[in-house]
Amino acid sequence: MADLSGDETLLRRLAEASGGDVVPLAQLRDLPEKLGKIQDNRTRVSEQPLWDSYYLFLFVLACWARSGR
50 and 56 in contact (C-beta within 8 Å)? Predict the structure, then answer.
């Protein structure tokens, strides 16, 4: 029979390297609470086309009108 037990040392090293944590089966009921405490520190990117801005349109229009003199 194959040994199906996990290598706890390897799991802890992987968890530390990725900023995670090892949760033993005995503490599995605490997992939802731990997941709720995790903060999402990823950078969020939102894109807005420049030409959708009335302020930019007015600025460009003013520059164009001034250069036409």
Answer: yes
pTM above 0.70, yes or no: no
| Domain residue limits at 12 | 7-37
pLDDT tens figures, 22-54: 888 899 998 898 888 887 777 888 887 777 788
Q: Which amino acid is at 24?
A: P
Q: Is residue 50 in a domain?
A: no
Q: Does 46 reside within a domain?
A: no
Token output for 59: 């600025």
Block residue for tokens 């029979």: 1
Count structural domains, the chain.
1
